[in-house]
Amino acid sequence: MPTVADxxxxxxxxxxxxxxxxxxxxxxxxxxxxxxxxxxVMCEGRIVGMFTERDVLRRVMAKxxxxxxxxxAQVMTTEVICCPxxxxxxxxxxxxxRKRIRHLPVCDADGKLHGLISIGDLNAFYAxxxxxxxxxxxxxxxxxx
Length: 145
Prior knowledge:
- By secondary structure, the chain is of the alpha+beta class.
- Helix content is 46%, strand content 18%.
- The protein has a single domain, classed as CBS-domain, CATH 3.10.580.
- A three-stranded mixed sheet has the order 1-2-3.
């Protein structure tokens, strides 16, 4: 069964992060620059939160707060759910569905961040797996061309 480490091996382990003291405006600019929907909030090498598009919408824009005057720490999601690299992809997908999260940091037992998987990464994984299955079934039914 494939694991999130397998997913990261294909996707890469590039992680975009930000400090909790940065402003929301800085965070949004970084997200736009890298075309990502979330940043891992790091302090002294440890995950202290996640900052997502949803945080911007619910905790900044909906409350008519000024992004240049608010720190990431004031609006970030502090209850971060992580998974170890050996987590089965199906299990990670289930956790993301149940907890209604779109980004899942991958950390080892020591808290070292190895990467971040998103719902888009899982969708791409499942789409690839389905394409392979269709190809195999087509080959089985029609034989090799």
